[in-house]
Every structure is written in C-alpha cells, then in structure tokens.
Amino acid sequence: MRRYHMACIYPSDSQEPELLYPYILDNIKSFLEGETDWIANAANAAATIGFLLHDLNWVGFYLKRDNVLKLGPFWGKPAVTTIQIGNGVCGTSAETGKTINVKDVHQFPGHIACDLFSNSELVIPLFKGGQLLGVLDIDSPEIGRFNEVDQKYLEEIALYLAETIQWPQ
C-alpha cells in the first residue's frame, strides 16, 4: 500500500537542514513508491521541493533531448522550453557535469532569465549509468539563498531521483 504523508507543516518550527532535508527526501520516496511513471514522479519531486523549502520560486527539470535541454516537469511559473547545452546556468551545468551554485544570477554571464524575480540559482546535473539525463534547476528570489549545506542535501536528493526515476530513453 502506498503511503501519502506530505504535510502542510514543516517537521519542526525551525528550518534546520538536518531535519528538513531528510523530511523532504522521505516525502519524495513516499510519492515514488510503487509509481513507475517518470512524469508523475518528477512532477511530485519538483512540487515537494518547491513546497517544503522556503524562499524558492521555481523548481524543475530540464532533460537532455537531441543535444539540447528540454523543459520537463516543474513547480512554478512557465519557463523557457529549450536551452542549448553550454548556455545559461542549466546549459553550463549540463556541459560541465558539475553543480553550479550562483549567488547572484545577474552576475552570471549568459544567464537566461525566465522569472525576473529570480536572484539565485542552484543547478545539479542528473546522471544515470554515466549518461547525462538533464539537470535539476532550483531558483530563488533571495540573493545567496543556497549555501554549501543546501547544495550537499539537494545533490543527495538529485542523485536519488536520477537513480530511482525510470527516465525515458
């Protein structure tokens, strides 16, 4: 039996990463349990992160298709549908295969602005079996929103999603 327990409250009154991030991952795991549809799983993962983390305005996936990144499931406002590999924060992360934590997107050369209220961005590449699947993109209206602790935990969540979701080939 699938268990649903996403709550409208945080696991504590504080935003302590040691409590919050495991709670987010547990919620994601409960949504993925027994579900094989990649769109449903990616959509619930984006919504869970967006809903439970503070000061975010966009969370979503850009997936590698025909050597470009195509918009996948997301939480937030409408977004750019195609990003060239190597362009913007997402394309650069895909090209380098490395997480990019941008404190102020207005200082990032070639930043692609989807939402004028976004000021910082964390992009994590997704790999499965050594192949680039795409990226997990997380935006915030707060400059410097993502620190090393956020990056560490969100990379763990991204790794879980990359390995667990049955992405299309």
Q: Main traits of this protein?
A:
GAF, disordered N terminus, six-stranded antiparallel beta sheet, Beta-Lactamase, Phosphatase_reg/MetRdx, alpha+beta, 169 residues, GAF domain-containing protein, 34% helix, FRMsr_CS
Give the topology, please.
Blueprint: H1 17-32, H2 38-52, E1 58-65, E2 68-76, E3 82-84, H3 88-96, E4 100-102, E5 120-128, E6 131-140, H4 148-164
Antiparallel strand pairs: 1-2, 1-6, 2-3, 4-5, 5-6
Helix pairs in contact: 1-2, 1-4
Describe the structure.
The protein contains four helices and six strands. It has about 170 residues and is an alpha+beta fold. The chain has one domain (about 15-165): Beta-Lactamase, CATH 3.30.450. A six-stranded antiparallel beta sheet has the order 3-2-1-6-5-4, sandwiched between helices. The radius of gyration is 15 Å and the shape is globular.
- The first-level CATH class name: Alpha Beta
Q: Using the coordinates shown, work out and report the CATH topology.
A: Beta-Lactamase
The total count of helices amounts to: 4
Portion of residues in beta strands equals 15-25%
Overall number of domains:
1
Q: Which shape, going by the Cα principal axes?
A: globular
